[in-house]
C-alpha cells in the first residue's frame, strides 16, 4: 500500500517499529505553535491513522527546553475578533483530531508546555513528562482565556478546583506537581522520555486495535454533552463480537496462546 508523502515545514515525522513520532520543529521559538504548525500536526495524525504500519503516535518538541511554549504570540497579536474566532475553532478541530485518533497518542513533554502547548499535551491520550517539564495556562497574562480547549480539558484531568486556580493565576507547575495532580502519567529523565513512551505504545500495540479504538471512543464520550457514554459502551461492546479481533482474542485465550490481532 503506498502512502502520500507530505512535506512538512514546522514538524518532522518518523516511523519506527510501528510508532510515528511527530516532532514540533521550531526549537528557536521554543516550538511555539503557529496556525500552520497545528494544521501540520493534524495532517500527520490523520496520516498515522491511515498507515497500517503505525499502531501508536508520540508527539514531542525539538530540543531539550520546550514541548511547545504556547500559540505563537507574534502571529495572533494583531488579529481581530473574526480571525481569533477562526483561529480558536480551527485549533479545536486539531485538538479533537488528536483526541479522537483511534490509535493511542502520547505527548512526550520535554520542557515547557504552556498555553497552547499545554492544551496540545492535554488533547493527547497520555502524557509522559521529563523532569524539567513545566505546565501552565498563562493566557490571562495576555488578556485572553485559553482558546484550544484548555478551560475544558484541564478540568477533565485535574478537577475544577485546581484547574480554576491554574487558569486564573497563570502559574506554571513543575513535572512532579503535574504528576501529583494527575495531569501526567509518568515523570522520567529527559534521556528516557521517548523510551518510556515507546514502552507504553509497545504494550498497546499488542492489544486488539478494534478494542483500543473502541475504548478511546467510549472514554471520550464520557465528556461529550448530550451523549450517553454507558449507551456507547453497550453498543461498542456488542459490535465487537462480530469482529475478527474478538474471534482471535477469545480463541487465543482458550487455546493458551498469544493473540495475533488482524485489527478488524
Ligand atoms: N510565541 C511566540 N514566540 C515565543 C513564544 C510564544 N508563545 N514563546 C517563546 N517564544 C520565542 C521568544 O520570543 C524567543 O524568540 P526570539 O529569540 O526570536 O526573541 C524564543 O522563543 C525564546 O524564548 P525566550 O522568552 O527568550 O526564552 P526564555 O527561556 O527566556 O523564556 C518562556 C521561556 C517560556 C518563559 C517564555 O518564552 C514565555 O513566557 N513564553 C510565552 C509563554 C506564553 O505566554 N504562552 C502562552 C501563549 S497563548
CATH class of the largest domain: Alpha Beta
Total helices: the number is 11
How many distinct domains? 2
Report how far the terminal alpha carbons are from each other. Answer: 17 Å
Bound molecules: coenzyme A
Strand content: 15-25%
- Please identify which CATH superfamily of the largest domain we are dealing with: 2-enoyl-CoA Hydratase, Chain A, domain 1
Order of helices and strands: EEHEEHHEEHEEHHEHEHHHH
Please state the second-level CATH architecture of the largest domain: Alpha-Beta Complex
Residue runs with pLDDT of under 50 for 5 or more positions: none
CATH topology of the largest domain: 2-enoyl-CoA Hydratase, Chain A, domain 1
Number of strands: 10
Helix fraction, binned, reads 40-55%
Keywords:
264 residues, six-stranded mixed sheet, four-stranded mixed sheet, 11 helices, 10 strands, 47% helix
